[in-house]
Amino acid sequence: xxxxxxxxxxxxxxxxxxxxxxxxxxxxGAVDIYDLERRMSEIDRRDTQRPFHLQHSV
Length: 58
Known about the structure:
Strand content: under 5%
Helix content: over 70%
Protein backbone atom coordinates (compact mmCIF):
# COMPACT_ATOMS: atom_id res chain seq x y z
CA UNK A 1 0.00 0.00 0.00
CA UNK A 2 2.78 2.42 0.93
CA UNK A 3 4.51 1.72 -2.39
CA UNK A 4 1.32 2.49 -4.33
CA UNK A 5 0.87 5.82 -2.56
CA UNK A 6 4.48 6.74 -3.25
CA UNK A 7 4.11 5.88 -6.95
CA UNK A 8 0.89 7.92 -7.15
CA UNK A 9 2.57 10.95 -5.58
CA UNK A 10 5.55 10.68 -7.92
CA UNK A 11 3.23 10.51 -10.94
CA UNK A 12 1.23 13.48 -9.68
CA UNK A 13 4.36 15.52 -9.10
CA UNK A 14 5.51 14.86 -12.68
CA UNK A 15 2.20 16.08 -14.09
CA UNK A 16 2.69 19.60 -12.69
CA UNK A 17 5.35 22.05 -13.72
CA UNK A 18 7.62 23.30 -10.99
CA UNK A 19 7.49 26.88 -9.74
CA UNK A 20 10.77 27.58 -11.48
CA UNK A 21 9.29 26.53 -14.84
CA UNK A 22 6.40 28.93 -14.33
CA UNK A 23 8.78 31.67 -13.23
CA UNK A 24 11.04 31.12 -16.24
CA UNK A 25 8.09 31.31 -18.63
CA UNK A 26 6.76 34.42 -16.87
CA UNK A 27 10.14 36.15 -17.07
CA UNK A 28 10.59 35.11 -20.70
CA GLY A 29 7.35 36.93 -21.56
CA ALA A 30 8.83 40.31 -20.67
CA VAL A 31 8.65 42.80 -23.51
CA ASP A 32 11.61 44.95 -22.44
CA ILE A 33 14.17 45.34 -19.68
CA TYR A 34 11.80 47.40 -17.53
CA ASP A 35 9.09 44.77 -17.76
CA LEU A 36 11.66 42.10 -16.90
CA GLU A 37 12.80 44.03 -13.83
CA ARG A 38 9.17 44.52 -12.72
CA ARG A 39 8.46 40.80 -13.12
CA MET A 40 11.61 39.88 -11.20
CA SER A 41 10.58 42.25 -8.42
CA GLU A 42 7.11 40.65 -8.26
CA ILE A 43 8.64 37.20 -7.90
CA ASP A 44 11.01 38.42 -5.18
CA ARG A 45 8.13 40.04 -3.26
CA ARG A 46 6.01 36.90 -3.57
CA ASP A 47 8.86 34.72 -2.33
CA THR A 48 9.48 36.90 0.72
CA GLN A 49 5.78 37.01 1.63
CA ARG A 50 5.30 33.22 1.64
CA PRO A 51 6.38 31.31 4.73
CA PHE A 52 9.71 29.56 4.19
CA HIS A 53 8.29 26.07 4.65
CA LEU A 54 5.78 26.70 1.83
CA GLN A 55 8.34 28.11 -0.61
CA HIS A 56 10.09 24.79 -0.96
CA SER A 57 7.28 22.32 -0.49
CA VAL A 58 6.03 20.01 -3.19
